[in-house]
Write a structure and sequence with these properties.
The chain has 406 residues and is of the alpha/beta class. 40% of the residues lie in helices and 18% in strands. The longest helix has 25 residues, at 305-329. The structure holds pyridoxal-5'-phosphate. Pyridoxal-5'-phosphate binds at residues 107-109, 112, 141-143, 193, 197-198, 226, 228-229, 254.
């Protein structure tokens, strides 16, 4: 360990930090592309992408250039002023999507918070206070603010924090009949992840999203797609809704948008955005010039036919090999997902052991993720080299072989 890195160690985490995370035993200190080096100089292959954040890997030259160029110009002005990177980013996102209005913030939770508040505000203004119900899916994940944990269908994240906001209903995912039974004139919004991410990389069925759109139209409710994890090229389209051809009224995104620089966005239409006049909602750092300059470079690189097609091709490369590993060792029952958001579902005997797979992979110098206890998740850089995929999956197979041997 170099002197520079010896000054802090993993053990310090347990003394210095609020214990709400349980980080790995090593500390990454440098990254390049899809390779990461820890304090001891050990090189790892990164299939985590910072949990679907490092859309262009580590230290992509275009992002380093955008960040350093902006760093020499202006860092922050607050929303008392607008700034050039904000407006350029908004234009790029709007040119590329259904939206013609953008709100920038710092995280996925904040983007969803804005989406839920906007939906309630629109319904309040148009129909009155009784139209305030939000319907979301069981096992969904929308962030960790109190409104977003309350809307998400995982009580383990909202239990124990006092009374939850009212007017939230949960229905089983991919169950159109359940949604139809729950929706009413009181519903202001239905919020769905096009692929349920945190709870196991479960894609929505085509008929489900189409049905949700139809029901929202029928009941004057807004359809919100949470694309915090699926957005910005992760699935092989700029946004996952484009695969389905089902257009939301509001879309939240974050994670990959900044390629590692914190930023979130809520995208919507002008007729809805006008219900957020000046002063109704805001955030100090939203639209920060550094974040927007980097995000603009991310969109420039990602929103090209080559990169998006590359994401689809790389998906197939992963899937073929993961299915072979699953078949050989009997460890996976299914490999699912889209693009560079892949879930390997553990087979019956291995259920609940995703964490063991992560630990075994780390021992082979490979970083992978879990999505719940039963799914091993892969969310690497959208431009990961094929050679890194192949070598990473070699390491993965060695990890699985060792785990299976016991
Ligand atoms: C679908 C989805 N929504 C929202 C969030 C919350 O994003 P953040 O952690 O940036 O607040 C996440 C994070 O994992 C997510 O996957």
């Amino acid at each position: 360990m170099s002197v520079e890195h010896a000054q802090v160690q993993r053990a310090d985490f347990d003394q210095l930090m609020v214990p709400n995370y349980a980080p790995a035993a090593f500390i990454p200190v440098r990254g390049q592309g899809s390779r990461v080096w820890d304090q001891s100089g050990r090189e790892l292959i990164d299939f985590t992408g910072g949990i679907a954040v490092n859309s262009l890997g580590h230290c992509h030259p275009r992002l380093v250039a955008a960040l350093t160029e902006q760093a020499g110009k202006i860092w922050h002005v607050s929303n008392i002023f607008t700034n050039e990177p904000t407006l350029r980013l908004a234009k790029k996102l709007e040119d590329a999507t259904f939206a013609d209005r953008a709100f920038f913030c710092n995280s996925g939770a904040e983007a969803n918070e804005a989406a839920f508040k906007l939906a309630r505000r629109v319904a309040h203004d148009r129909f009155g206070p009784q139209k305030c119900e939000i319907i979301s899916a069981l096992d969904s994940f929308h962030g960790r603010t109190f409104f977003t944990v309350s809307v998400a269908g995982q009580p383990k994240y909202s239990d124990g924090f006092g009374p939850r906001p009212e007017g939230i209903t949960h229905v089983p995912y991919n169950d159109l009949a359940a949604l139809e039974a729950a929706i009413s004139e009181r519903t202001c919004a239905v919020v769905l992840e096009p692929i349920q991410g945190e709870s196991g990389i479960l894609p929505a069925q085509q008929a489900y999203l189409e049905g949700a759109r139809r029901l929202c139209d029928q009941y004057n409710a807004l359809l919100i797609f949470d694309e915090v994890q699926t957005g910005v090229g992760r699935t092989g389209e700029l946004f996952a809704y484009m695969h389905y051809g089902v257009v939301p009224d509001i879309l939240s995104t974050a994670k990959g948008l900044g390629g590692g620089f914190p930023i979130g966005a809520m995208l919507t239409r002008t007729d809805l955005a006008r219900h957020f006049p000046a002063g109704v909602h805001g955030t100090t750092f939203g639209g920060n010039p550094l974040a927007c300059a980097v995000a603009e470079a991310v969109i420039d690189v990602v929103n090209t036919p080559e990169v998006l097609q590359g994401v689809k091709d790389k998906h197939q490369r992963f899937k073929t090999r993961l299915e072979a590993i699953g078949a050989q060792y009997g460890i996976f029952s299914q490999v699912r997902g889209m693009g560079m958001l892949i879930g390997s579902v553990l087979s019956e005997p291995w259920k609940g052991r995703a964490r063991d797979v992560l630990v075994a992979a780390e021992q082979e110098a490979l970083m992978v993720l879990q999505a719940g206890a039963d799914v091993v998740r892969f969310a690497p850089s959208l431009v990961i080299e094929d050679a890194d995929i192949d070598e990473g999956l070699e390491r993965f197979e060695r990890a699985i072989a060792r785990l299976v041997r016991g």
